[in-house]
């Protein structure tokens, strides 16, 4: 089924009635990239990508409310989309485009588009496209909903965006001098953390009345820190290490940063698993969730570290300390991770399984598979609730 026909079918299925005050989960579906039996990337013909939107008023059973035929790329952190605090807008960055080459094959090239979607409409609708830096990857929106930051991987920069109602504009570009893949803003809106993937560092930015500047301070953050996030109290930063950007059979940690210290510093590493991809903190601040690739798609079929499933690792956050609480199998090649707004449920987007796993988060630190996986029309390269 072609994308536009699929979107039309989805719109007919979900209807046009609005849902006031809905919490929205955004899922980016990338149909262009697959892995072969040797664990190598294969680029397929483009044209079937989607971005889907789910209402979380019943967090145990997310309800599909619409979809848009927007280009999306799994290459880049699974944080390339975000929702404003008032749930009125979704910002969706596309990292790569596909170009034809000789022999009917395709190659990826950096994109520079950020899509702005009106979430108050049912179904949600695209209202504008903003040009940002080259290969936009991670996104963050501050708690006021008026400032957004975009990590431009190929551009080695941060795009600064102002948000006024439905008007989203680039106001500045901050040079970072290294590839940047993810960004998170502190709850007070005064600082941001930026993952410098190839430099193995997390940089600190200062924010003052919409003006963003590098502080010149960087923390060593393990091997290939990919996704960075911050606890709701602003005390702790977390960065997920991929080890070497894909599965290799060796465990990788989550880097723990003390943001209360002056200057902030790395204070711990918590073992997570083979290649930490997604990383998110619960709105309650009591747990974090990491998705682990676990050789579940990017390893050769006969490799010793190939597994049928990926993993979700729950990390307990208590008194500034991070510890491993539980691990559960999810679908293959889990990318994005998210919590429901009340923190009672967690979701993983399983790229190779074309599903979203719905997990119940117990107060005692256990993850429970609800066995209510959401079937998707393609591989979920990114998944987000809110912004951080």
From TrEMBL:
<dbReference type="InterPro" id="IPR051200">
    <property type="entry name" value="Host-pathogen_enzymatic-act"/>
</dbReference>
<protein>
    <submittedName>
        <fullName>Lactonase, 7-bladed beta-propeller</fullName>
    </submittedName>
</protein>
<keyword id="KW-0732">Signal</keyword>
<dbReference type="InterPro" id="IPR015943">
    <property type="entry name" value="WD40/YVTN_repeat-like_dom_sf"/>
</dbReference>
<dbReference type="InterPro" id="IPR011045">
    <property type="entry name" value="N2O_reductase_N"/>
</dbReference>
<feature type="signal peptide">
    <location>
        <begin position="1"/>
        <end position="22"/>
    </location>
</feature>
